[in-house]
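Hey team,

Filing this mostly as a record. A colleague (T.K.) asked me to run one chain through the structure pipeline before their review meeting, and I want the input and output archived in the tracker in case anyone asks later how it was produced. No errors, nothing strange. Just documentation.

Input sequence:
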Amino acid sequence: MAPTTRETESLFRAINGRRAELVALAADLIRFPTVNPPGEAYRPCAEYLGNRLKRHGFAVTYVRAEGAPGDSDRYPRINMIARYESDRAGPCVHFNGHLDVVTAGAGWTVEPFEGVVREGRLYGRGAADMKGGLAAAVIAAETLIESGDFAGAIEISGTVDEESGGYGGVAWLAERGFFSKPRVDHVIIPEPLNVDRVCIGHRGVWWATIETHGRIAHGSMPFLGDSAIRHMTAVLERLEHELMPKLAMRRSDMPVVPDGARASTLNINSVHGGESEGHEGYPAPLVADSCRIVIDRRFLIEETLADVAGEVRAILEDLSRTREGFRYSLSELFSVIPVMADKDGPVATATRSAIRTVLNREAAIVCSPGTYDQKHIDRIGRLKDCIAYGPGLLELAHQPDEWVGIDDMVNSAKVMALTARTLLS
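Output structure:
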């Protein structure tokens, strides 16, 4: 049974009354500098959130992803999972938010970890991506619980390492049944895809390292060596002028936003070559015997992972045949297959209906240009009814002066509360 107009209005009034509380919660989360890498402040942030939810009747569990990439006693990968069971049997709706944020970087006009409120916006690293969305989900769940008008269970998780692939967070938990039926039926991830969009999936990703090999020699006699950096310039030239134009011509039927991301893309994530710079003083005169790049290839649901990797390897093999002294190593870091949920599935349909009720306009169905933790819920948890929905603009993620609109946080809390109530009616 769908919620009545009177029930919906009561729920919305309650959320409006918690506007200041929502802003304060989001600001408190921002003040934990949960920078990843290396994984700062995970435990205190998880415990802050868990203690709050425990006071609202949730059973709270903390799970450390021991042995996961980056996990150590100094930087433990601590995840928080909270569950509230109603007194009536029913499905479970799970709100999953990641606690980690990327480094602040330069260019800020406000302090990145103070949670500054200014002209209807909350500023700070993670405000949009995604502590504002997580706070909105918490307020939505708490308000729905206080109404008492649902059957089944509500879960909220604060997980880690999403910014570096999610392997110490959602992937670890999914491998242990936390994101599978019968425990969970529907998942909402409040990533910043905007308050009037329902995100049903994302492009694929292939990260790899390419290393070119040379021969060390004295820098005053480079003719006695073989520069790996010069060999890497040949690789970069082929990627820039041969592969990237091909990728730009490919277009997906996935509703990826922004429009430029409907094409395949390749980014040179980093370049490392020659003598290490991790020391004081002047460098030594050396010909570089090694140069390494990290590439970030985003691909479409119409492409295969084998073809994605094969295109890069074909360029390297051709250089091996045609360029004197060219030697290389190619290593995959990780890969993710594109994911796309059913736009007419239960959680997507309920969320679209809630957006229509709250905002009085139709929701856009979109896919994300980058991956997020839906990939692990889909591939490992085998749970298909999963979407991303939350406040904030995707274009602000990882930017200086990142912010989320306070009105958007309140409206998204209403959408998430109404969606959960519909699914748990």
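Quick notes for T.K.: The chain has a mean pLDDT of 97. The CA atoms of residues 113 and 375 lie 29 Å apart.
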